[in-house]
Amino acid sequence: MLIERIYDHDLSQAAYLLGCQETGEALVVDGRRDVQAFTGLAAANGLRITAVTETHIHADYLSGTREIAEATGAQIYVSGEGGQGWQYGFDAQRLHHGDTFTVGTITVQALHTPGHTPEHLCFLVTDGSMTDQPGYLLSGDFVFVGDLGRPDLLDEVAAGDDTRFAGAQDLFASLRDVFLTLPDWVQVLPAHGAGSPCGKALGSIPSSTVGYERLFSWWAPYLRDGDEQGFVDELLSGQPDAHSYFSRMKRQNREGPAVMGRRPSLPELDPAQVAQSLVVGEVIVVDTRHNSLVHSGTAAGSLNIPAAKPAAYGAWVYDPERESRPVVLLADTSEQAEELRDHLVRVGIDEFAGYITTFDGLPLVEPETVAPSELAATDYELLLDVRGKSEFAGGHIPGATQLNAGRVMWHLDELPQDGGTIVSYCQSGVRNSVAASALRAAGYRVLELEGSYNGWSDWNSTRGAAAEEPATA
């Protein structure tokens, strides 16, 4: 048996390819929409993808299940659990707790593990060519390395009403009645790693075992003691902000994401023609550079979506359900442009006009900034901290209002409505540049705080040290 982990560092998301090398059949679990990562890997190992499934209705990225099935002819399996409100809206074979299917000599058993979501499944995998005992658990967003899937997302992004409490109780029961009944040797392969907002303390190690989590996880003592309330309280405390685009992902994944099919190569565009299209509002330019370069001059009205994490940042500021203009990417090469597009389609940004390699010939602007030393003398209406809640609680500039960069474009009613100036900051400046570019494109005047919170802290410390020095003649 072959197991390959396909990890997306942009979204901190893991998909898996399981292959039976005896029959040449393969299964993809929790795949994404740029399918070549899976079809290419299967072909390189002499496999054909015959089955595709997912652990649950995802909220943080757009599922590639239907896309992979369209490209390969694979049979789709999805959860049939969770009740009427959590049924998928597309044709697939439904799985319930205890159901099995085979991929060559591999047996895959569905285990219903509600808590993160009501329909959530894990997949218990047995390599029949070696043993009749299970060896692997594809745990989805149920059990992570060092953490659990958060049960509060439905309140945050799916219009739930205090479902977090019932979800936390469901997680407790899923651990007690399903996970902890498995043999200690079973390897746990989760769908996310460190950096994902689907939990609050995810580890960077790619896998664990049932036995290790039973002994050393933070939640294990609560299960040993039968302390459900203590477990619920600990689980729900300190969960990170949920990004607003999660609501769109959840809805589209339940209905079934649009199938893109074979995509033509992105054309390289003439910057002069792009400049004309900008004037009449036909396209939107995406500046993929680091904010330090953006501040030296960028295309007027452009969005800053850094190439380091284009899917994560792109979904914060480009909503394809509200934005009809196709994207023009700034890229060094055609290969980079294609890679950027692959990342962006993972969050449903599908419309592209092409790419440019230079801003020469486009109208340029320098984003406005303000130095920490000038902040007190600056006339502004709102000091906006676009970091997460926990970062804000750990220290912030006096007078600031917190609104996460992944939520700000969905909460414009909380911003000045009369053209008042906004001063914004994050921790170091990257997230702030992303959010500020989107706010400017929406018509707001934004001054980015130079160095963001780190810059202000350094300046404030230096000022404090200077004030404590004795005066000299």
UniProtKB/TrEMBL annotation:
PANTHER family: PERSULFIDE DIOXYGENASE ETHE1 (PTHR43084), PERSULFIDE DIOXYGENASE ETHE1, MITOCHONDRIAL (PTHR43084:SF1)
Residue stretches making up the Rhodanese domain: 382-458
Coiled-coil ranges (or none): none
Name used for this protein in its record: MBL fold metallo-hydrolase
Sorted UniProt keywords: Metal-binding
InterPro entries cross-referenced by the UniProt entry: Metallo-B-lactamas (IPR001279), Mito_Persulfide_Diox (IPR051682), POD-like_MBL-fold (IPR044528), Rhodanese-like_dom (IPR001763), Rhodanese-like_dom_sf (IPR036873), RibonucZ/Hydroxyglut_hydro (IPR036866), Thiosulphate_STrfase_CS (IPR001307)
Record Pfam families: Lactamase_B, Rhodanese
